[in-house]
Amino acid sequence: MYPPAPPAPHRDFISVTLNFGQSYDGSKSRRRRSCWRKWKQLSRLQRNVILLVLAFLGLGGLLSYISVADQWKAPNGRSADEQRMRPANPPVLPAPQKAEANPENVPGVLPQATRRHFRRGPPNLQIRAPNKDSEDRRLDATQRQEGTEDATQREEHPQRTLVSWRGAMIEPEQGTDVPARKAEAPTRTQNQPAPPNERQKAVIDAFRHAWAGYRKFAWGHDELKPVSRSYSEWFGLGLTLIDSLDTMWILGLKKEFGEARRWVSKKLRFEKDVDVNLFESTIRVLGGLLSAYHLSGDALFLQRAEDFGNRLMPAFQTPSKIPYSDVNIGTGVAHPPRWTSDSTVAEVTSIQLEFRELSRLTGVKKFQEAAEEVTRRVHALSGKKDGLVPMFISTHSGLFTHLGVFTLGARADSYYEYLLKQWIQGGKQDTQLRDDYLEAVEGIRKHLLRRSEPSKLTFVGELAHGRFSAKMDHLVCFLPGTLALGAHHGLPADHMELARALMDTCYQMNRQMETGLSPEIVHFNLHPQKAQKDVQVKPADRHNLLRPETAESLFYLYRLTGDPKYQDWGWALLQSFNTYTRVPSGGYSSISNVQDPHNPQPRDKMESFFLGETLKYLYLLFSDDTDLLSLDAYVFNTEAHPLPIWAPA
From the candidates 520, 552, 607, 639, which is the catalytic residue? Predict the structure, then answer.
């Protein structure tokens, strides 16, 4: 009915509507409204959880920032005095063996950012120079930030200090600062030592065999169980490895030392909830680290030693200042042993060499003060008998307990040893230590010395409430060496005569056994009887733990007298160890019966001191170089770790 509407005309333009008063922002406002709507849709519990997580993250980030900033400020925040008081270089023992050329086997020593407190060097150390090239081997003090060890980082830092390890140049590994050396000029220079002789090579072979078993079956653990090819833990601190560090250095085992050093750098941590015995951990761990530092010049070991020393200090927090026997290095809680409330006299008086040296190297006085306070208090106590001390002491009252029992065996032995060695370590300045030692030697002569039948062997027995016992621990065989050392340092010459007589006795304690190895305890025959030997052994005492005391005293007697018979006796001892204790798969085992050469009954345990002491003393015994760890420059702790003698002030 109506005609269709005409089509709309074509328009060549675009219509744009401008809305003033509003702006387009990419829908951010809409997204904000959307997020807010979603947030409001959450329950109150969900919102609280999210806010709590965000708060924790923020707090963690703030603390991390503060920590990092503090570390970066520390190296530059030193005073001028602290910058001047850099540590003196320890003496570096020269290599008895030629170093390997393979750079992959060379242990590194790496500079680290400077510690927040300064260290000081030893005042005028009485130490002989290692060799004519010692000046070239000195390490410059460095302050570099710790980083990774990959090739890229090595290229970025081409000017790192190199450490000379037995003639080979070693690139420092990151994680350590290298101390500057400032030792007193030596009185004479020690020549490069000769290559090891045949007997020393036999010791090296024994060590490598023991180390191979430890490395394969017990790496990083305390002790090897060579028969079962497993391991045992005591403290969980790699005791065998730390105890062996200086032995490897002395024997020239560069590759093994480097591998052990890397374990210390990467794996040794003391932040663990574990109780350690103050005495055992001090002489083995602290002493081992300090000795490794002195011989190698590697500050990693001193850093670890200071950390460990700090963790042992809670043991001294007792009413009497006599330390507890045990301390948890993770929690700082110290306590007496479970079987008694007392500490043993030997344990609390045989930590002084190590704590005094730690203070001298770090400049932190608390270590030395705590240890020497124990010495002062024991010196003033009543209950002694002509210089002889009881075996136990109360941590509460600070008084001796179990009075009237005197021995130079377990729980008292190293008290006497450390009287002499502290006096020597301190440059023979503390006459109180010397006088206590001299009085004790006279007490031994008066109350404990007897001669056996039929061979008239001189031995040291025990006294219990006035009653003498002809019992002598193998531990007492430290005494000949200690007496000889005292005579060498100017004490009465008749000490050397007694040392020789007791050395003969300790040799017979080994020789009269069918295996040539001494039992743990012997009893001497006091009355002439037909077909009766001087040395008697009870069934419970027939075991041998690979102890070092005979080898230790043989070393001192040969070094100080030059009599070759002591080397021959040591050689026989090494052959007996190889014959009756060597395990084919690696390692050496303590045995239960030294009187049965056909079935010595392995106990499946290699004590750390076999590598740390026994083999070290045998190697030194067979050396013809009297300047190899000179007894005028070093004093050995009771775990055979050499520490430098201080020069008189």
Answer: 520
pLDDT per residue over 244-296, tens digit each? Answer: 999 999 999 999 999 999 999 999 999 999 999 999 999 999 999 999 999 99
Q: Are strands 462-464 and 405-406 parallel, antiparallel or unpaired?
A: antiparallel
Number of helices (H) and strands (E), helices first, in the chain? 22, 20
Short-list 584, 587, 571, 586, CA closest to 619: 571
Write down the catalytic residue from 413, 417, 552, 607.
413
Cα within 13 Å of Cα(462), Cβ side: 22
What is the CA angle 362-364-367, rounded to 5? 105
Task: Give the model confidence (pLDDT) of 357-400 as tens digits.
Answer: 999 999 999 999 999 999 999 999 999 999 999 999 999 999 99
Active site residue 413: yes
Our CA angle for 372, 374, 379, nearest 5°, is 95
Question: Does 638 belong to an annotated binding site?
Answer: yes
Mean pLDDT of the chain: 82
pLDDT tens for 18-29 read 444 444 444 444
* Dihedral, 202, 204, 208, 209 alpha carbons, nearest 10: 20
Catalytic residue among 354, 549, 607, 613: 549
- 337-363 mean pLDDT: 95
549 is catalytic: yes
Q: CA–CA separation, 83 vs 75, rounded Å?
A: 10
pTM: 0.74
